[in-house]
Design brief:
CATH superfamily of the largest domain: Periplasmic binding protein-like II
Family: Belongs to the MoeA family.
Function: Catalyzes the insertion of molybdate into adenylated molybdopterin with the concomitant release of AMP.
GO cellular component, one term: cytosol
Pathway: Cofactor biosynthesis; molybdopterin biosynthesis
CATH architecture of the largest domain: 3-Layer(aba) Sandwich
Oligomer: single chain
Strand content: 25-35%
Bound molecules: ligand LQZAQKY5, molybdate ion
Pfam families: MoCF_biosynth, MoeA_C, MoeA_N, PBP_like
CATH topology of the largest domain: D-Maltodextrin-Binding Protein, domain 2
């Protein structure tokens, strides 16, 4: 099919494009000035200037055709005019070589020259060059049509009501957009319930109208998982299950000669399945090359275990610390779509590998440019909402800046500072012996290192309870009451150390607290567990309680600090953060979260 140049970007050429016209189509002035005959200027110099009468030159502007009998241009700035009764005489103080400042016919592209090969994906510059070479439209390959077929009794169309237990159809939105990004047309079909006959009918109908059918979900072993069975009965089932995770239960087959990919329902699995299986197929259908991502080497910030026998696709955040790119693995859950949203790169741990040690050198497929990665502030340690607010505010102020924080608890953060795996560690570790926060741990873990500690905030820690505090919890000692279900933080988290300290002070033991062994990794996750009724109480910050409209019983106020290698304090990557911490507007926004005091924000306490 032929498409107009304005609509051709992203399409793939179906024939070679030969220039029909030269560009420029005539010898043209390349500068504003005067057109002259070079032969007439021989001998001109500073000491013997040449005086050209008005009929021996023509005034020209950039792009003008070169008048007959002229073969060179002198820039306006190098011409001195002298008024005479016969008109302005141009004085030249140097000889002009032939074709000086002249763009000759076909300098850009010559008629008859090959401009673009067949099978080339068109970009903005390509269509402009084609237009300059005389094209008005181009023969392009048909864009493959991708049909997206969502399945599942629980799936509801986007924008409509979603009852408890139902899931909005986010996968179809994503897969259709991925197909369009791959240069295809995408059609999202109505959601089919878990009924093999209906799914089969929909697959047949879609196969007749499209080049690839993506059946969403129903790929694994559940009672209502029919995709593989449908493909087997309606056509040919080629593969069910691959040694890739996420994406393990993918279904590959043919129905009525149209390829069908059964994408697992978990969003990360669905997205990666498209990348791994659908994208190369669609590129092949268009006769174009698959886009390979650039790669970089990086140091892994944490140990990464991986099951032997599966290629593990790990999403990572990246930043540059001490001159080396550091990769921090994000959540591995196939349902954690935000792991892909936040990812700067992908790390594939091959099937034959058990994983990697912290600090190991690995290869990363880049999802973002290295220049952006170099401007990323890497925070590892305890997490606080103020860091999220800072990340958002830094980006608003300068779109090139990112702040990536990963939560491994305060202790893990100090270890990451020690190992040069982050710029900053968020820490609020209480030393029960001295009652001091963070500094005793810095002395122990980072002994002999020149380390600075900058106060971020003071914040209130307290019991996060259901609205109205139905169990009447007033103090940490109430956690030992029968029937009170507590939700704890992970080992190494400052909030867990705080609980232990508060229990010890009261002569209580963790064994007295029901749910002590149950761990969540963030304040918000603790609040989420209480809000969902899966626990009655957890220790955390006021802002987390507020985020879920829960009640809060204050226990203590604690400092939350940023630990940084002193040599990095003046690093350009951190400058925007220090500036932000000094801003009154930012401090007001922090106080607005509730439970924060910014009196000492930005103060270096060591
Ligand atoms: N016993 C086993 N259970 C599971 C296995 C297994 O091998 N044995 N595999 C797991 C893996 S790995 C994956 S991946 C998933 C694949 O799930 P299905 O493709 O069968 O999909 P469902 O079970 O229907 O749904 C899974 C999950 O995805 C959500 N979903 C489904 N469609 C959409 C949509 N259009 N938009 C957004 N989210 C969607 C669905 O609600 C579920 O939460 O199976 C594991 N289980
Ligand atoms: O293999 Mo499943 O695709 O991990 O989530």
């Amino acid at each position: 099919m032929r498409v107009g140049l304005a609509d051709a970007v992203g399409r793939v050429t179906a024939e070679a494009v030969w220039a029909r016209r030269s560009s420029p189509a005539f010898d043209a002035a390349a500068m504003d000035g005067i057109a002259v005959s070079s032969a007439a200027t021989v001998g001109a110099s500073e000491t013997t200037p040449l005086r050209l009468p008005p009929d021996a030159y023509d005034v020209v502007d950039t792009g003008d055709p070169l008048p007959d009998a002229r073969d060179a241009v002198v820039m306006r700035e190098q011409v001195h005019y002298e008024r005479t009764p016969a008109g302005p005489v141009a004085e030249l103080r140097a000889a002009v070589p032939p074709y000086q400042h002249v763009r000759s016919v076909g300098e850009d592209v010559a008629a008859g020259e090959l401009l673009l090969p067949e099978g080339h994906r068109l970009r903005a510059v390509d269509v402009a060059a084609a237009a300059a070479a005389g094209a008005v439209d181009l023969l392009v390959r048909r864009a493959p049509v991708v049909a997206v077929l969502p399945t599942g009794d629980e799936i509801r169309p986007l924008g409509g009501a979603v009852e408890p237990g139902q899931i909005p159809d986010t996968n179809s939105l994503m897969l259709a957009a991925q197909a369009r990004e791959a240069g295809c047309e995408a059609v999202v079909l109505p959601i089919e319930p878990d009924d093999p006959a209906r799914i089969a009918a929909a697959v047949h109908a879609a196969a007749a109208e499209s080049d690839l059918v993506l059946v969403v979900a129903g790929s694994s072993a559940g009672r209502d998982d029919y995709t593989a069975q449908v493909v087997e009965q309606a056509g040919t089932l080629v593969v069910h299950g691959v040694a890739v995770r996420p994406g393990h239960p993918v279904v590959l087959g043919l129905v009525d000669a149209t390829p069908v990919v059964g994408c697992p329902g978990y969003p990360v699995s669905a997205a990666l399945t498209f990348d791994i299986f659908a994208a190369p197929l669609l590129a092949a259908l268009q006769g174009a090359a698959v886009q390979r991502r650039p790669v970089t080497r990086a140091r892994l910030s944490r140990k990464l275990a991986s099951v032997v026998g599966m290629d593990d696709w790990i999403r990572v955040r990246l930043g540059e610390v001490a001159g080396r790119v550091v990769a921090t693995p994000l959540s591995r859950g196939a349902g954690v779509l935000t792991s892909l949203v936040r990812a700067d790169g992908l790390l594939v741990v091959p099937a034959g590998t058990e994983g990697h040690q912290a600090g190991e050198d690995v290869e990363i497929d880049l999802l973002r440019g290295l220049d952006e990665i170099r401007r990323t502030i890497v925070v590892i340690g305890s997490h606080d909402l103020v860091l999220d607010l800072a990340a958002s505010e830094l980006r608003r102020r300068d779109p090139r800046i990112s702040l990536a924080s990963s939560n491994v608890g305060s202790l893990g953060g100090l270890v990451a500072v020690r190992d040069e795996l982050c710029h900053l560690a968020g820490s609020h570790l209480l030393d029960p012996a001295s009652g001091e926060y963070t500094l005793p741990y810095v002395d122990r873990l980072l002994a002999g290192r020149d380390v600075a500690v900058v106060r971020l905030v003071h914040r209130e820690q307290g019991l996060i309870v259901r609205p109205g505090n139905p169990l009447g919890l007033q103090d940490v000692k109430d956690l030992t009451r029968r029937g009170v279900r507590y939700v704890n933080r992970q080992r190494g988290a400052g909030t867990r150390v705080l609980l232990d300290h508060e229990l010890t002070r009261r002569g209580l033991s963790p064994d007295d607290v029901e749910g002590y062994a149950r761990e969540e990794h963030t304040h918000l996750a603790v609040a989420g567990a209480v809000a969902a009724g899966r626990a009655d109480c957890g220790l955390g910050i006021l802002a987390a309680a507020r985020a879920y409209a829960l009640d809060f019983v204050p226990v203590t106020t604690e400092p939350y600090d940023l630990v940084v290698t002193a040599g990095l304090l003046d690093a350009p990557v951190l400058a925007p953060l220090w500036e932000l911490l000094g801003s009154a507007a930012f401090r007001a926004a922090v106080e607005g979260l509730g439970g924060y005091c910014t009196e000492e924000t930005g103060r270096r306490i060591r």
